[in-house]
Design a protein that fits this description.
554 residues; mainly beta; 21-stranded antiparallel sheet; four-stranded mixed sheet; 2% helix
Length: 554
Amino acid sequence: MDAAGKISYQGKPINKYYIEGLDLLGGRYSLANENLPVNDVSQVQVIENHQPIRMLDSLVISDNAAINIRLRNNLATTGTARVALGGLPVLWEANVTPMLFTKQQQIIASYQSNNLGNTIETQVKVHTVEDALNPFESVERKKTWVRIIPVETPVFSTTRWLYNRPHLGSVNFLKKLTAGYELKLNVSYLNDYQRQTANTQTINYTLNDTIRFVENKRNRLLFNALEADIILEKNNKVAYFKNQLTLNKQWNRATGVLTNNDSPVSQGVTSNYFSLTNQLKDIFKVKNQVITWQSFLHFQRSPQTLKVMPVQFFGFFNNNNAFDSLSQSVALQSFVMHNRVSMRKNVKGISLSPQIGFRIENQQFQSQIQSISNTNETQPASSDFSNHLDWRKAEFYSKIQIQYRIQKWKATLDFPLTYYRLAVRDTFLNQSQRINQVAFEPRLNVGFEANSFWKFSGLTERQYSFGDIGDIFYGYLLRDYRSIERRNIPLSQVITQRGSLNVGYQNPLQAMFGFLTFSKMWNDYNLMYASRISAKGAVESYSLPIKNSSITKT
């Protein structure tokens, strides 16, 4: 288990965490790990090669393990309750986490708070592979466009340096319904206030001069995050159905008073976020064919605002007319739809699964810089300081997956063919780009069990990627009080080839476990990037059409 609470087995994250065979927490299992009393646990079971979907247990090979927590007999209620107070001037820690476990329902509720530097928000972070790493459901949840100058965080324990006041409340409820269905509700709310103080010295060496500046930072951060999941699931040998509706809302503020070479600078950021996501997976049989339909819908809106006083780039705006402060507003709105249909059939020990699907992504990015006078009158800057970017990306693909198992060998081979269509346009600045690409992205995973102790596996794959909306903006964007930039560059294309070898050893009788992994990754790029500082101090990013590559070994 790593510092964030994620559990791995033989070097791979677990794909499920059960309590008495039920998946109550949906990947947020740190809440149980941190608060379930050890005396109430009778066994910790490791389920190797666990296939979470029972209907696919004999059809789809899984390389990940699961954990099942077995409780003491006849245990129904348990939990944790702890309250502590101290001095200097007032220190506190509170943890009240009652739990209920019956055959028909499970409940874990929790309220936690402290000002000791403990980061309790990790207890509601998703860790399992199915919930956190599923490529079908992957989407960038939030992007940071503007910021106050941050404080570099130390590498040692947060209890030694973090001044925070988190309050975390969560309710997790699972109820068995008729016809084999389960209803789950997972709700969490986090409120945290943090204070940061730091001093930094930066030295820039140029051809003609040495520029040195010292920054004294005093930051105040306020975080609010609400997340709710409603899940209806049916999982048995003859049918699988899961629909998950997720609401995520954040409203954060940050203020900073920074002294740069004895010159004070005031910074303020408001950063809000709202998303609504629905994920559906339905598996059913038509005669001897297993049909899977997956649907993913995601909408998000993320408005952010940065205010800075005084202005560092005075000559950039308003034709040198006097004003007191700058305001940078940013709004990103995006919609993602992904649908896929696949069929699976077992023929003489070979599992065949053809798939077809499409993914559509539509994003609008808008930004505007305004100058503010001492009478609070606002004046928009010229069109060079605004963005009206329209990002449209479509993927149409077909794939056949072949899985084969014989004696001690197992293999999974993917043959996907994808058509990518990407268009970026800013009509106000008369800029546009397009990419049309057909990509072949095969993947092969082979495993061999030499005996009950030794296991060997290997993986090789090839993937294409084309960057995201944060890579390009044709108008200037004020990132923080001393950084303004624009990125008028072509769309990137990266081809990634990856290979890995794994050796695992397990001897439960002697409690000896170990694994060894070697991986190598090749990245081929179509562009080389560079930046230059304009005469007025802005960062201009540009690229050169030069192919290059990188190799990483771990």
